[in-house]
Amino acid sequence: METEFDIQLSNLVNYLSLLKMTQTYAIVETGGKQYKVAPGQKIDVDRLETAEGEDIELSKVLIIADEKDTIIGSPTIDGAKVTATCLGEEKGDKVIVFKYKPKVRYRRKKGHRQLYSRLEIKEIVKPGEAATTKTTRKKKTATGGKS
To answer: What is the pTM of this model?
Structure first.
């Protein structure tokens, strides 16, 4: 006899897959690596030449999916982009490179820390959609008066 709290494994797998699809996500490529991103997410990518607080457009979008449809590019989706804000740079964990040759007293120890840029994903723009942009006001210039 099955109660309301008993859930079959197959139903649970289907339910979890539906939960994952409730949010729009995209797969983008930057720095030769692919990242699955969603709006509001923070990711670390290989260092980009951007200042902190600057907006970035990632145009190599491979897949965009939401609860309604999935758009797959070949290899990228034309007109799609992901906008993000750079939150600064960080160094990754130290990697030790140790070279050793037995019997000849050859030992070399070297460390390396990769630089990463932290990005916060703002929005995912599908092809044909317009990006939601904030309207910026131009500064008023002083007119009249003595020159």
So the answer is: 0.68
